[in-house]
Amino acid sequence: MREKISACITAGNEEQKIRRCLESVRWCNEIVVVDSFSTDRTAEICREYTDRVYQHEWLGYIGSKNLIRELAQHLWLLYLDADEEVSHDLRDEILNQFHRGPGEVAGYRFPRMVHYLGRWIRHGEWYPDYKLRLFRKDAGRSEGEEPHDHVVVDGSVRTLRGPLYHYTYDDLHEHIETINRYTTITAREKFRKGARFHWRDYLIRPHWRFLKAYFFKLGLLDGMQGLIIARVSAFGVRMKYAKLWAMERETRKQAQQEKNN
């Protein structure tokens, strides 16, 4: 009898994508969903697959993952976002591992493959983009810096070959909107931790990001999509530091106003 796995899904207004995600984990022993009070049919669709649907205010990417960790009942947890799908190859690989017994392994990582503007991305910074998403509940936890969470485990990690599919942005508008949101979160987190604006970051880092993604990591082999990804990523780096500069400027302005008053 193999050890049991809880599929843990965090969601918010994902009615167009959530069913694909849920279908891909029906083989798990339970499905747990934490929904951030969706205003569409996300929670309703989830209840077709499981009665373990919890609605909770958004706690951030790290906080929400650690919340669902506590709600899951089984020893092994498989983390998914609503716009992701476990491929058949990855499912079969996981089941084979568990039928043999995971042994001393504390976690498994596997590549994530992104579907972007009609094409699977196989190069650049977006692939293979290994994610540690399957782990022992008593050995792992979510850490990181918002909005980029990652699982840390106490123990050995095994790499699988089957991909986790990621159906990311529907169009360029959504991509730019997400970059805007993420760069604001990142800049605020950096500012909160005491990071300060430097011109070299603003001027040099975006160019390096593009060169690395497009040339060194062969994003150019993904055609126009690869070029767009590299350009938008570089733009995101520039915006992150521009927002950090703006936060410093606003803080100095407020301090001066308080001093004058």
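[next item in queue]
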Amino acid sequence: MSRLILLTLFTSIAILPSAAQDKKKPTPKSEPRVIFSVPLAASPAKTTKLTLRGINLDDAKEVRADQGSVKLLNKGKAGVPDKNPEKVGDTQVEIELKLDAKFSGAAVSLIVVTPAGETKPFRVLVETKLPVIAEKEGNDGFRAAQAIALPIVIDGTIGRQKDVDVFGITGTKGQKLIAEVLASRLGSPLDAILTLYDAQGQQVASNDDFDKEHRDAKVEITLPADGVYYLSLIDAHDTGSNLHVYRFVVR
């Protein structure tokens, strides 16, 4: 074989791509992340079913808690109502969280374990001092307002477009009222507006985004007279879904 043929052969071999080069490396999944939970809180001395919404949770192997015990029920892809997975997540994990009656603290910390890594600890609220009730639908006006006795914590949802949740209280002149929505700061897509009306339907106070760090609402006022008052909670953009969850503290 001539030197020219050998040189040509070696050159051809040298420029051939290797098998390893031909194989495209799979794109690694980004770090798993929990954005929020539905509902936003759990209860002591009970088993609470929670859905953790987030990014890259569909391969979850387990969920750990710093208190109590966790049972993994389901995992997978999740629908994205507003086509913005960074806002509401596109995967989810369903769990049962069981907490002891002697639970201490204001929250339980959860970590989702996946093949791509672990999520940062995610805090789920736990109320141990005030009574907690569920919002009851059909409360979309003054006449249908859900009556509540203070102090109280309400777990609810702005479940559809233009949904309004109204709560009725009986107050006395000089009484200090604090009503606070916890939603945006806990990852919920709800952008709350909270308005207080008197028995005649006149606006007494209103708030939208009381803190620059989130979009939650808070009303703090000394009631001007005895009588019935109504607290109205809506989304600032008139949006709503089963993901627009909130925790409403009134005291």
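[queue empty]
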